[in-house]
Amino acid sequence: FALNKVFGGLPELQWWLVLHPENQQVLYTPIRNTANHTLLLLFFSTAITMPHVFHMGFKENSNTRTIKMATWGIPLYLLIISLPIYPILWAGFELGSDFAPEYFTIGVPLSANNPSLALFAYLGGLSAATGAMIVITTSLASMCLNHLILPLFQSHAPKKQGIYERLVVLRRFLIMGIALLGYAFYYLLDDRQGLTNLAIISFIETMQFLPGILAVLYWPTANRKGFLAGLAVGTLIWFQGLLVPMMTYERILNIPFLQHSVPLGMEHWSDIAVAALAANVIVFFLVSWLSKTSPEEKKAAELCSIDALNRPMRLELDISSADEMKQRLASSLGEDIANNEVNQALASLELQTEENRPYALRRLRDKVEANLSDLLGSAMAHEIMARLIPYKEPDSPSTEDIHYAENRLNEYQHHLTGLAREIDNMRRYHRQILEDLPLAICSLGYDEEILMWNRTMVSITGIDSENIVGSRLQSLPEPWKSLISDFFHGQKQHLHKSHIKLNGRSHWINLHKSQLGSAFSGMGDGQVILLEDLTETQRLEQELIHSERLASIGRLAAGVAHEIGNPVTGIACLAQNLEYDSDRNETLETAQQILGQTERISRIVSSLVSFSHSGTPDQEMQETDLYNCIVEAISLLHLQKDKKHIKYINEVERGMMIFGNDQRLTQVFINLLSNARDASDEQGHVWIKANRQENSFIIQVIDEGSGIPKEYQDQLFEPFFTTKNAGEGTGLGLSMVYSILEEHKASIKVTSPWFENGRGTAFTLQLPAASEKTDKATG
To answer: Strand, helix or coil at 63?
Structure first.
């Protein structure tokens, strides 16, 4: 309205300013005045110290992202809404309005005979003033309630009576009281002061809080005695120099001892403001310097200081779960409120209700106390939490909470610069080395709290670090709880080849530990424990020993078989002599039976000797009947009387000729059939089937066992891999089968399960037919 209706647009306004340069010069008067620096300081401090500004900027904005946005959003908003001031001011001068400049928003439309716009502007000003009064009174009421009233008495609300209702009533009385005090102050003024003077006077008093706010951030050794003393002195100067003259019109203060008069009132507001602030700072500094800072004040300074990260102590709570915390708080807050506050804190921290880790419970307690501080004030919230959920008295000096420090450093890393950033990068580099180390590492505090759990530890134990870090050793599952706990409390620094069972399988672990002294980074006494998994190495050693033992037995069996051959030959000769020397039918029949049995013994001995030498390389390859190899393998397996009684069903026909070494192929079938026997139940069946497919034979060995898990099937043909218990298998059988089949240009694959009921395993071999091999050998 001022731009378009009064001046007719921007060009006309510019021309008007050229014709009336005195109106532009008015804007420069405050800048040429010696009070401009004080005015800038005043407005700067007001943006921080005014109660309602602080309330809206910090208390109602717990989101860090919102606060960061407000740092540039609010100044931009204030700049934009300040721009219309100039055309409204100049329009008032042009129209010759009788109103004071601060009321030109109403005076301009009235001077232009536009009462509707004046009414609209009045309603806008009224709504703005009402909104400001509401925010000021509610924020002051909350501050007075939290910091003045609640600390004066203890909260002992019955369990069924909620504390919220009591606080609402108290806050309502405070709001009414503050509003009545504001009206009483207005009544005493009797409309004798303008808005500008009132604003400057109030701004000067709120500026007295500025030294304390800056000291909280930058001066950790300051204390409350110094702050209160400086605030009292600064307020006294403000009261005598500005407030009293505003109420009584006194302009001179006579100091009898100094024989000097001091001018008072708004005409000297700049000098009085500087004097009040300077006296405040000097007294604040001297009293804080001469008095002792309490431990509580040191802790508060560490919490608020921008030059140091908060490093709370790693103390132990006397609760073990979030539910127990709810039960404790219900005695003072009421059951519903306690549940609501704890659940809100759990959701904010993304924790589960069943959480029982000490670190998580400490975070939960701190979050609940912070939430209650918004409601009850910091003093009252601290008193309730200290009384209902106290920390245990430590048996030894408290140490820093390394988890909290890690989280704070991660959040703060982008703000670090210079040497601090270099140190943090080095810390992260060394921590990454520990995380990626192939040795399993866990760090424990003196109170058995787990402080570190690297990736190798996760791989060995199968326990995720996010679920275990911050908990006690006792929360570990077996066998890790007993293994690590016993070693933690034991005197030995090294423990070699400790045997444990995991999922029914044996594992061997080497353990090493190192003691951490209390001087180490302030983290307190504790231990670093290293775990080395020797399971594969131990199994390899056992399999090599077992293989050597089997080889020795094989050599012994070959020697015994050779020695048995001599008396068997003698028995056969005697039986033949008996057959020639006697004509009696009974004697001849007996002699034939003896010769038959000796021939059988000779075949068995020959098979054992051949089998013991079957690993010799460069053995002769020739046409071999597949049927004979399988029959001989079955015959040898039947000699093992201590094994399961299995029925072998040989469906292979005679005349299936392949090109290879009969002893090596017999060894293949002995291994496959013995594995099938071990996998089968007593009196079970094993089938051997074969059919021709073009130029090769497909042979299948099928059992009725429980099958082979999918995760093991890719490792079956690796050396020393076995699913049997230690001492029951070498893990070399199928590896040897694979090697022999490779020599014969054959292949093998496993299928499990084989039957529809989810049981059974089939090994399928593909062997080249003899005719194809013979042709290639001849060619």
So the answer is: coil
For the four alpha carbons of 466, 468, 470 and 471, in that order, the dihedral sign comes to positive
Amino acid at position 67, single letter? I
Q: How far apart are CA 686 and CA 669, in angstroms?
A: 12
Confidence of residue 59 (pLDDT cuts 50, 70, 90): low
The two three-digit tokens of residue 57, written as one number: 């900027």
Average pLDDT rounded to a whole number, residues 93-99: 87
**Per-residue pLDDT for 206 more than 60?**
yes
Calculate the dihedral angle through the C-alpha atoms of 692, 698, 704, 707, rounding to the nearest 10 degrees: -150
Alpha-carbon span 434 to 443, nearest angstrom:
11
pLDDT digits (tens, 9 = 90+) for 477-502: 888 888 888 888 888 888 888 888 88
Decide: helix, strand or coil at residue 586. Answer: helix
Alpha-carbon distance values, 315 to 362, 449, 470 (Å)? 8, 11, 12
Quick one: pLDDT at residue 158?
43
Q: What are the tokens at 274? A: 């500087």
Provide the pLDDT for residue 283.
95
b/e code 490-519 from CB counts within 10 Å (16+ = b): eeeeebeebeeeeeeeebbbbbbbeebeee
Residue of higher predicted confidence among 156 and 482: 482
What region does 74 belong to: left with phi over 0, alpha with psi -120 to 50, or beta?
A: alpha
Per-residue exposure over 228-241, b if at least 16 CB sit within 10 Å of its own CB, e if not: ebbbebbbebbebb
**Percent of the chain beyond pLDDT 70?**
80
| Residue 585: how many other CB atoms lie within 10 Å | 8
Pair 141, 171: CB distance under 8 Å: yes
Q: What is the mean pLDDT of residues 85-113?
A: 88
SS3 723: coil
In angstroms, the Cα distances linking 714 to 285, 417, 686, 718, 761 are 77, 52, 23, 9, 14
- φ, ψ for residue 458 (rounded to 5)? -65, -40
Tokens of 123: 């309603």
pLDDT at residue 232, as a whole number: 95
HSE (CB half, 13 Å, CA atoms) of 546?
16
Q: What pLDDT band is residue 341 in, cutting at 50, 70 and 90?
A: confident
DSSP-assigned states of every residue in 628-670: HHHHHHHHHHHT-TTS---EEEE-PPTT-EEEE-HHHHHHHHH
Side chain identity at residue 190, one-letter code: D
Cβ burial of 699 (10 Å; 0-12, 13-18, 19+) is: buried
Mean pLDDT (the chain, rounded) = 79
Instruction: Give 112's DSSP letter.
Output: T
Nearest to 1 by CA among 78, 79, 102, 104: 104
